Amino acid sequence: MGPDDKHSDTLNTTNQLGEIQFSTFHTEQGFHILIHMINHSDERLNTIQIKDSQNIHYTITEFLDYIQPYTIR
To answer: What's this model's pTM, rounded to 2 decimal places?
Structure first.
């Protein structure tokens, strides 16, 4: 989520990173946007908040470490 996003905005695919099913992380549009921002050193990265369905917050690094063991599709 960006700094101006509300909780209701989490339903937008641009804010959804993906979903884990079995041993696969199925990406959503938000994941591709995040990777693009990382690859281009986007200054907005400092404002990104990552939360899971239980409202647990992750840094970008923590999130990427968390999904590393999964197959990403």
So the answer is: 0.77
